[in-house]
Design a protein that fits this description.
mainly alpha; single chain; 86 residues
């Protein structure tokens, strides 16, 4: 026969508390990972944008790029200045 184990109310509450803490820790970890992934995606998008704007600047003026692709002139000039400083 299987042994039936009876736990005290206090022990059951302690186990439930630990389970709750573990669940909340997992949720925080998932959220932190999600936010990290979002930031990584944003950084990658900025790098791609910078790459293409740099290429466009080889043959076009910042104003032409802004008008053609709908990118703010300020952002284009920022990238151009960053490239000139390197």
């Amino acid at each position: 026969m299987a042994k039936i184990e009876i736990k005290t109310f206090e022990e059951q509450m302690r186990i439930a508390g630990i389970a709750g803490e573990l669940e909340r820790a997992e949720e925080r970890g998932i959220e932190k990972g999600r936010n990290g992934g979002i930031e990584k995606g944003r950084e990658e998008a900025r790098n791609i944008e910078k790459f293409f704007i740099t290429k466009f600047l080889e043959k076009n003026t910042p104003e032409e790029i802004s008008e053609e692709y709908g990118i703010s002139l300020e952002r284009i000039l920022e990238i151009k200045n960053d490239n000139n400083q390197q």
